[in-house]
Records
---
Amino acid sequence: MDDDNEQTYVKLVSAEGTEIFLEKRIALQVDTMRAMLEGNFRESEESVIRFPDISDSALEKVVRYLHYKDRHASSTARIPEFPIEPEEALELLVAASFLNC
């Protein structure tokens, strides 16, 4: 952890108000979250990012994917497939496009 990185977690808030905590080092790997957390935005001061257009289920799946991606980032072995149900695909595509992840 960096000395100037006081908080190790970021609170993500879905459209329905559900709060999910994500390690800040993982959040910083996502372009949109990094911009919010390192820029001159309210999110950088509060370590809270609100996603009014991302549902609970989509945000939870995105966080699971970010952990999956982080866990397998330096893997030299074959990476297992990340499961996405067909009924989740469109909503996750929209969320991933917004987050640029």
---
Amino acid sequence: LGNMVEWHEDDKAFVQIVSKDDLKLKWRIELPETTSLYHLVDAHEVESDEHGSICLKVRIAEHEPMDRIALERQFADQYRVTEGERINAILKEYTFHLEGNGNG
């Protein structure tokens, strides 16, 4: 059970989006590469059409560069991170075009 949170470089990353009406999973989208984020900033619909398709914008505070080993070392002791080695979170925005039938 303890190794359920182990980092594996070859694992896939997914965005799971639930319906705002009933909170059931509606879309599960595989990302092209793994990411590490500090937290979700916000998400909002930009537009939708008569077929139920949605354009969803999501902003996250994403770690850059994405070096998981260095990031874990930094979080283990923030006071020992030397100048120039700190991994910061930068604001990134992603746009997802979601079809009303659950395809993304």
---
Amino acid sequence: DRRVEAERRETRARLKQQTHQRSKQFLGSLLGPWRAHRRSVAPLTLEECGMLHAMFYESMAPEAKITSLERLVNPELLNQFEAQEGTEEERRRQYMLLHGTSW
């Protein structure tokens, strides 16, 4: 029946949008701890791992499995990021990313 199929598509689209919004909220909640620990070479904390697991499992298929999480230590790349982080353009881009609008 066409009506039932249309309702299913509508429900899938709504669920996809809700999942997308929750993922952005998780990303926003990760920014504070990441900024505090981004120069660290220590393993990820339990708090960081918990937030990452929550964010990934919110948007992945139920059968998906995370086998490991590790902190990426790349000072050169981080230096490049920090050099751009303060620019007005980058701040606008981050704002738009967190609020789900296009660049």
---
Amino acid sequence: MKKNQKIKLKQENKKHKQVGGSSKRAKEKSAKGRVQSSSTGSAISRSADAKKDRLNAKNQQRKSKREASVLKLRGIGVLSSSSSSPPTIIALVPLSLETS
């Protein structure tokens, strides 16, 4: 160990890091009253809208496929066919004791 090296005896904790960036108040304070110009739409907002549209389309496709499969299993609707519908049970019950 060197002679002139300082030894730290006191614990130093790490500084807190903000994961999500600055807070809303800090952003407003740094803007100092300036307002962004309203254009037709920034690339960020358009990409966010595009992402929402993609997710919505996927959810709609998933929902329609699920409904189609349920209807097919139940044998109801346009997608059902006579071969895929469940078998029909028919019973003949005599009304009298005599059988012919």
